Amino acid sequence: MYKNLLDANDADLALVIGENPKKASSMYQRAKYIHEFKEYDDWAEALDQINGTSWRKTIYPYVNVTPNPKKYWSFFLGGVGQIGGSGAIHFMARYYVEQLINKEHLLEKYDRFIVTRSDHYYMCKHDLSLYDNKYIWIPKHEDYFGICDRHVMANSTIIMKVLDVLPHLINNVEQYNPELRRGYFKYMDPESFLKYYWQKQGILPWIRRANRCQFTVKSNEDKTRGSTGVGHSIDENIQSLGLTIKYTPEFYATECHCKKGWAYSSANW
């Protein structure tokens, strides 16, 4: 990330991360802005921060809180109660990014924002000059019948709307009541919920897709609610770093772009 994203674009780092008393990551030293948030056993408590507990009556009764026989949950609320996955954690992290932007008046200081993951490995230079700043840029692939939620580039005029996914649902639930009551939310994962929200907000026409420069990794010590990784054998460099590739399609798409200069073609996972 440092070499191929931050240094390559003369970019500042804002770190939004769960509380960690050890603060062992070098990102703490690199970051210009830091916002730590509490880690919850039940992320319903975090959602209560947005607008109180009303969502527990207006939204929660209309989602799958336990898997049905086909193991479909409302994964967009993953981390709430017994719902699997980490959807709610992901969207709350975006909410905390919004808070940091407001607190530090970042909309007045920067004209472009990249909201990404700290566990992304950048195989090659992520050159922002290639991407027209009037559009919202999302990496290709990993859409899961919605749109990839792991990395987004957007300008300062639209970034808050891009991030305001779960708060908008909670604060404007009357706009979502028809879909809620028809059971539309029972089978939503984070990617499909993100696409649904962006469509509702008129954002989708501004979306463009970027070739992948990055893929997600984990160390043996990392905890995860999603993929545990595919092992070291795919890439010797990743093996030498003691890391595991989490999503094979991400890696192959990145390798195709960075090493071969052509796009990786695959189905919608």
Explained architecture:
By secondary structure, the chain is an alpha/beta fold. A 3-stranded antiparallel β-sheet has the order 4-8-9. It is built from 11 helices and 9 strands.
Q: What characteristics describe this protein?
A:
single chain; 269 residues; 3-stranded antiparallel sheet; 11 helices
What is the 3D form?
globular
Q: How many beta strands in the DSSP annotation? A: 9
Percent helix range = 25-40%
Tally of alpha and pi helices: 11
Distance between the termini: 25 Å
Oligomer: single chain
Strand order within the widest beta sheet: 4-8-9
Query: What is the residue-averaged pLDDT?
Result: 90
Secondary-structure class: alpha/beta
Poorly predicted sequence stretches spanning 5 or more consecutive residues: none
Order of helices and strands: HEHEHHHEEEEHHHHEEHEH
Q: Could you give a quick summary of the protein structure above?
A:
The protein is α/β, with parallel strands linked by helices and 269 residues long. The protein contains eleven helices and nine strands. The relative contact order is 0.14.
Helices, strands, pairings?
Layout: H1 2-6, E1 14-18, H2 27-30, E2 33-37, H3 44-51, H4 55-58, H5 87-103, E3 112-115, E4 120-122, E5 136-139, E6 152-155, H6 159-163, H7 165-171, H8 177-181, H9 190-200, E7 207-210, E8 214-219, H10 236-240, E9 243-245, H11 248-260
Parallel strand pairs: 1-2, 5-7
Antiparallel strand pairs: 3-6, 4-8, 8-9
